[in-house]
Amino acid sequence: MANILIVEDEPAITELLALNLRHDGHTVRCAADAEAAQLAVQRELPDLVLLDWMLPGEPGIVLARRWRSEARTRQLPIVMLTARSQESDVVQGLDVGADDYLAKPFSTAELLARIRAVLRRRAPQTLDVPVTVGALLLDPGTMRVQAHGNEVHLGPTEFRLLRFLMSHPERVHSRGQLLDRVWGDHVFIEERTVDVHIKRLRDALASTGCASMIETVRGAGYRLARPAADPAATSASVAVQAA
Ligand code: CA
Over the range 184-212, which residues count as b (16 or more CB within 10 Å of their CB) and which as e? Predict the structure, then answer.
């Protein structure tokens, strides 16, 4: 399930969207204008934003452009909503980096399907599908982790941390990014908290031979590396796509 921010000024539409997204298992926050949306994102980085184009004050497209220009929000998945359906607007929306685009009126089924597609591509850690990297298997549905078929016992934070790292293998994440994506807070938690939980995760994996997959990248952060010559090297993405 994903943490989704709805930015929409029409209460009836906001309510309908929130209801359907919650029913689909997501956590929802709402903002009625650009200013409120900016504050919401500063407080906690969502997994995806549903962004209405026509807002009172600053339009959604300006907000999308600003988010794309800032390091912290550059990768934020954005689905734009609008009453307009002219081709030039679609092009403009996609040009500023929206991941998808939906013209009102849209069917709820289509919206949910599009959101799932964007999450699969951009935020696979939000999907409740098992992920495999090398000898590690993580199943969000049962909250279980196995290494070479043996159960690994992790605390809840280590589980979320490993889930995020396994969903983005080979990518380097800064401590700030991990706080944003795993803890949901980059402001009030100290960066060394990340180091503490990385150490706990490595300790938990020590007897499995998988601890070395969690690499420290000096001056940059952490990464989960696939073992060299791993025949299952692509299984993480395959597992996600198959869901
Ligand atoms: Ca509107």
Answer: bebeeeeeeebeebbeebbebbeebebee
Q: How far is the CA of 85 from the centre of ligand 1 (A)?
A: 14
Cα of 60 from ligand 1 centre, angstroms? 9
- When comparing pLDDT for 229 and 102, which is higher? 102
Q: Do 116 and 198 sit in the same domain of this protein? A: no
Q: Is 92 in the same domain as 140?
A: no
d(CA 46, CA 30): 11
Q: Of 102, 126, 150, which marks where a domain is finished?
A: 126
Q: What is the pLDDT of residues 32-84, one digit of tens each?
A: 999 999 999 998 899 999 999 989 999 999 999 999 999 889 999 999 998 76
pLDDT at 84: 64
Q: Which residue has the tokens 């706080």?
A: 179
CA distance 139 to 142: 6
Q: What is the pLDDT of residues 221-232, one digit of tens each?
A: 999 999 876 555
Distance 183 CA to ligand 1 centre (A): 31
Kindly state whether residues 224 and 144 are assigned to the same domain.
yes
